[in-house]
Structures are given as C-alpha cells and as structure tokens.
Amino acid sequence: MLVQVPDRRMVAELTPDLNRLREACDWLGLLGCYVYSAPRHHGRAAARMFAPSIGVPEDIANANSTACLAVHVATRGLATVEVDMGDSLGAPATIMASTRPGPGGPLVQVGGTATIPFLFQVGLPD
Questions:
Q1: Which position among 2, 16, 102, 124 has the lowest Cβ density within 10 Å, counted as fewest Cβ atoms?
Q2: CATH of the domain at 57
Q3: Does the reported pTM lie above 0.70?
Q4: What is the DSSP code (8-state) at residue 38?
Q5: 105-121 mean pLDDT
Q6: What value, to the nearest 5°, has the Cα angle with vertex 46 and ends 88 and 4?
Q7: Nearest to residue 99, comparing CAs of 72, 70, 75?
C-alpha cells in the first residue's frame, strides 16, 4: 500500500502500531505499507516501508515499492524519483527509479546506494 504524507518530517516521525498494521495488511491481503513524502519537483522524497505481515518491522531499502511509486508519480509527469530510506534504522540508503513508456505500459529501471557497515575481527597467528 502506498501512503503519501506531506513532508519528510512526517515520514521520520512515524511510529506505527505494528500489530494493528499487520492486522490491517492481512485483512487487505497486502504485505505492508510504504509511506512516502510528496516528491519535490526534482523527484526527491523520503520513505519508510513497514511489512509486519512478512516479519519485517521496517525495511532499510525497498526497491520494489519504490518502483511502484515511480509508476504512480509518472502519471503526474515525474519520470524519475530518488527516495531516501533507512535513516531511522541507522542505515541510510537511496533508491532511484525512472520510468519510460513501454509497449504494455511503463518500463521501470531501479538502482540505489546504501551504506553498509563492514565489521569483522581478524585473528592473527601467534
């Protein structure tokens, strides 16, 4: 389910009741809820994806839902979106999606960037 809110601040301040959201999603036959800020004229937005019905309280980065958003905003003349996600989880990511006309409907290209901490411990020989 795509849910638009007016601005990035509202996205950041969300504190969904995951049990109630899971019940609603299950009742509607949905995996989750992708909440996004209204994209600016240049296509930049923020989003958070909550999918408690599949055991994901919040997704760090969700390309599938961002592709759906790209198709949705393409109907309003916006061919590209860049969506910031993961900030609330301490793992910032940006998903980019662009659309172009195709023979059976819009074609979507999706890509992105993420910050992934790489932590390891190396044991040195004595």
A1: 124
A2: 3.10.310.10
A3: yes
A4: P
A5: 76
A6: 115
A7: 70
Q: How many domains, the chain?
A: 1
Nearest to residue 40, comparing CAs of 81, 92, 5, 94? 81
Is the pLDDT at 115 greater than 70, yes or no?
A: no
Strands (E), 1-126: 2-5, 33-37, 44-51, 56-59, 80-85, 93-100, 107-114
Q: Is residue 120 part of a domain?
A: no
33 located within any domain: yes
Instruction: Give the integer Cα–Cα distance in Å for 22 and 17.
Output: 9
The per-residue pLDDT for range 41-92, each reduced to its tens digit, is 788 999 999 999 999 999 999 999 999 999 999 988 889 999 999 999 988 8
Q: Is residue 123 part of a domain?
A: no
Q: What is the pLDDT of residue 125?
A: 62
Task: Give residue 16's identity as a one-letter amino acid code.
Answer: P
